[in-house]
Amino acid sequence: MTESERWMRRALRLATKGFTAPNPMVGCVLVRNGVMVGEGYHVAAGMPHAEVNALQQAGERARGATAYVTLEPCCHYGRTPPCTKALIAAGVRHVVVATLDPDPRVQGRGIAELREAGISVEVGVMEPAARALNRAFFHFHDTGLPLITLKAAMTLDGKVATSTGDTRWITGPKARNYVHRLRAQSGAVLAGIGTVLADDPRLDARLPGRRLPRQPLRVIVDSHLRTPPCSAAVLLAQQNPHTQPLLIATTAPTPPKELEVTGVEVVPLPADSAGRVDLHALIHHLAERQIISVLVEGGPTLHEAFLKAGLAHQVIFFIAPKLVGGKNAPTAVEGEGVATLAQAWQLGPFTIRRFAPDIVLEADILL
Fold first, then answer.
1. Any catalytic annotation for residue 113?
2. Bridge partner residues of 154 (DSSP)
3. SS3 call for 85
4. Which residues does residue 30 pair with via DSSP β-bridges, in sequence order?
5. Predicted local confidence at residue 305, as pLDDT
6. Angle at 357 between CA 353 and CA 362, to 5 degrees
């Protein structure tokens, strides 16, 4: 491993601490004479960027230092000033960038501005890892649509609930904490009305001992507006309308008065051939809201609908060392399924994580 790779690896680890949607996760490490003098990461959208946090920590020690940044420094004014100007003003001598920013407001301009100021710039150190870290951000700028991830927790025999509908808890605390981190780092968390009626989920992100800087947009796909006004998701929206918004996607033209409450937005969308919410219309609607990633948490029928619509990009399946059995116990993907194995949805190579006693399998869906 080269010196540049060593420090960039540290910057990448820092970046994963952020909850930045719809912005990218970014980490920065400042090194002078082989010694780290400052580091930082982008905590949340609207807050200071990674480079600024690292420069503040370094102070005067930043002069003559090398900055290792996981994404090209921004060069435009948004909710925060340009990071390029901060690096130049601090007297940074050299900048190592993992990958260019796909945002058309940057896209090479940040590198050019640094070089024009006399700062040497190296690009491409650990680029695959940096792009993977912000896959949703790159996908959104490439396609204009959010990255869709199907998430399920199941037993070793593939059941997501018992035949009586019991789901709590399939996985252990460590795996569930990881899910809450995924929620907090997603633009939206989405569930179907079947899951809402069966499990009454809040759909928010919660990490023990931590106050999160942001919450995802919570979305319920409810074609015929059966969401109970007393459901946990609706009550949470009423209590915290600014930080816990709830969107209910439906085909119904007008919502009942019980759902016309602060914090709950009922959005009528076109119906598909089966009379259910057209998922293509929903995803385009979310894209217009600058939602760059969606974590679909079920249920099994909605998972199949996303697969059949060709909208899902990856799966994250949690597997617990338990056996449930029961021919009527639901599995992770239901609906009509496919008729032959040749029609099965193919997955790419798995990444395997361990959250004892559970394992997590992550893979791309090969479209």
1. no
2. 319
3. helix
4. 38, 67
5. 97
6. 25
The tokens for 325 are: 């059995």
| Phi, psi torsion values for 96, nearest 5 degrees | -110, 120
Cα–Cα distance measured from residue 32 to residue 35, given in angstroms and rounded to the nearest whole number = 5
- For residue 278, the one-letter residue type is D
Q: Which two tokens stand for residue 269?
A: 């969308």
Peptide bond into 299 cis (omega under 30): yes
Nearest to residue 219, comparing CAs of 270, 161, 167, 293? 293
pTM of the model: 0.95
Question: Looking at residue 287, what is its pLDDT?
Answer: 98
Q: Looking at this protein, which amino acid is placed at residue 228?
A: P
172 φ, ψ (degrees, to nearest 5): -85, 180
Q: Checking DSSP bridges between strand 35-41 and strand 27-32, what pairing results, if any?
A: antiparallel
- What string of DSSP letters covers 152-209? EEEETTSBSS-TT---TTSS-HHHHHHHHHHHHTSSEEEEEHHHHHHH-------BTT
Closest C-alpha among 188, 135, 161 to residue 15:
135
Q: Among all chains, which residue has been given the structure tokens 């759902």?
A: 259
Catalytic residue among 51, 72, 297, 304: 51
What is the tens place of the pLDDT at every residue in 180-233? 999 999 999 999 999 999 999 999 999 998 899 999 999 999 999 999 999 999
Cα separation values, 257 from 193, 225, 331, Å: 19, 11, 35
* Residues ≥6 apart with Cβ < 8 Å to 141: 102, 103, 104
Residue numbers in the chain where pLDDT is lower than 70: none
CA gap 252, 224 in Å, rounded? 6
